[in-house]
Amino acid sequence: MAYTKIIAHRGSRGTRPENTLEAFQEALKVASDGIELDVHLSKDGEVVVIHDETVDRTTSGKGYIKDMTLQQLKELDAGSWFDPKYSDARIPTLQEVLNLLADNHFTGVLNIELKTDVFQYPAIEEKVLALAEPYLAQFSVIYSSFHYETLKRIKALRGESEIALLFSKKGKQQMNLGEGIAVEGWHPKFSILRSLPPFEQSKIPLRVWTVNRKVEMQVCLRKNIDSMITDYPERALQMRKVI
Ligand code: G3P
Ligand code: CA
Q1: Model ipTM?
Q2: Could you tell me the domains of the chain?
């Protein structure tokens, strides 16, 4: 059997409203090996779990997360845009997600993506590290970002942290991999897999996103890529059983 790990992207994004407790519960229910989520900072400095810089696409509200307090964010419906039956879904804090994972005895890998490529949220790295610290005995945490400076900051603050660089094209970031600080993981977009150096020989784990189509899942499984990050963890888990 292939050993590629299945990481649920923004929870189980294909079947639940992304980055909500409902999505993470589903990822736990289907027994994903890992869970990925995205974090930003609210106006009052809370680490909140949501993908975009604004609430516009995935909630009933409008505006930048950095301009809204946690209380304002909590008033928004974060589920109806996906399906009206999820109208109770709210934007969770990172703390709430960590509690959910701990309460459900999760022992896999949590991939926290710090969304610092547009706004440089003050001390978000310190806050995320402090929140995750109490849970490290139970599950492992990988910190990823498209923003190289954030990864460097995480490493400087807590040297034993596992960091991974996200990239979507063959570019400067990728070229820098051998020059700057070491990263423990490469997180490339699936479409650039072929343009990477021979990754089968790499000792650094490759965690590829966002792998949703069956043919793409087959590629990851047959090549024994370390992990696939997918919106459909249940589908990927089923496929892994037969490859
Ligand atoms: O971790 C992979 C993936 O989440 C990166 O892109 O835009 O979905 O956060 P995005
Ligand atoms: Ca992400």
Answers
A1: 0.98
A2: 9-203 (3.20.20.190)
